[in-house]
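Deviation from plan, reported transparently: zinc ion complex.
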Amino acid sequence: MEHTSRLARDGLELRRLLNEFRFVYRIPIIFVSQNLRTDREQDLAIIKLFNIVDEQYVEAIRIATRRGLEGVLKEGRWVSVAPYGYRLVGKGVLEINEEEARVVKEIFERYANGEGMRSIVYDLNRRGVKPPKAKTWSQSSISNIIQRELYKGLFVWGKYKYFVDPITGRKKKVPQDNPVVVPVPHLKIVDEHIWEKANQRLREQRRTTKRVRKMHPLYQIVRCGHCGDFMGRDGNKLTCLNYRNKKTCDNPIRLDYQFLYKWLVGNLKQYILLNREKIEKIARNLKAKDKGYKEELTRMKAKLENLMELYAERPSPYLKEKIREYELKIEKLEELCKRQEAEFDFDKALRNLEKVLRLDATEANKILRMFVNEVVISEKHGIIDLRIKTTAPLSTVVGVKEMGCPGLEPGTCGLRVRRSAD
Ligand SMILES: [Zn+2]
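Because the crystal trials were delayed, the predicted structure below was used instead.
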């Protein structure tokens, strides 16, 4: 590798990478221009120090790039792939794509005039209008279009800064103070006042849907067996949202929400009761293993300390090798302990399942997820097929991850219910 600045963006990432190469791949990294190696003990501290300097360096580059971008944008040149409604002609030169621009205009007008996003999406998909990137139009592709300033003739760059949250690993977007704004009137597709009207409505709707869109107990648990997406709650029914909102799925099932929910909880309880002994045994084994790992970890740590003391008195390549070996083992054990802690506490889980129907949606959802990985629902010839995949240790008991339905007999999967007329 050329330089330490190429390896990691921040200290956290650096430590992770160094450990991975050192302990997992056992490959040294060599930084050519600085003559540093990760397999030389004395170099490691210097590499970590360089990383702090590098963070500043990367930030400096970011600012410089932004200045460069500003220049390019000010000349009226685009710096990314052509957005929907345009095409790139030559380097960075955008031109309106008339066919797509008509769709953009239509979306703005219909939405600004009060038509629902769902109905616009449905209509575009029905007519087979080619969407921007994905296979079909969705509410998010519509709202992305409505928010794009380019359609009212403005280049806007740097409105948000994106970064990865080190704890959750999710991408986050933070508004920035001084975005670059360059007027490009020749790329205008919709009139300013329509643009504003549509965005005003979008902001208002966001505020209300945020309040209305509620968590429900089966949230992201039940999947549609036809399209594979999660099914959602629509009033007191459970239904495929792709069928309802986009008509991109052909699964018209509408199940009574409370019936399915109570049925699922009731059957889980019954299944656990029938297999209680086996499940408890497995849960106990998991716990015992957990205890074993912890004891092993304490032993290892004590040994490592002894080795370190020995090494301080009398350094030798052999001891150094041993120390590395122990460090590696300890790291693995710590990982195992962490994983075990997150595992199933059977008694507590069962107590929670008993009262799940009385809890609020968020809590109930959390508890159900301890038992159920997913429920897949599909329909053929008026017969509903329902498959439940349970979590460990329930799934371990039956040996298969899939669990049958009425009476929950292991192995048999599929509840056959005549679809009730609704
Ligand atoms: Zn579906």
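Residues 398-422 have pLDDT under 50 and may be disordered. We consider this an acceptable substitute for the interim report.
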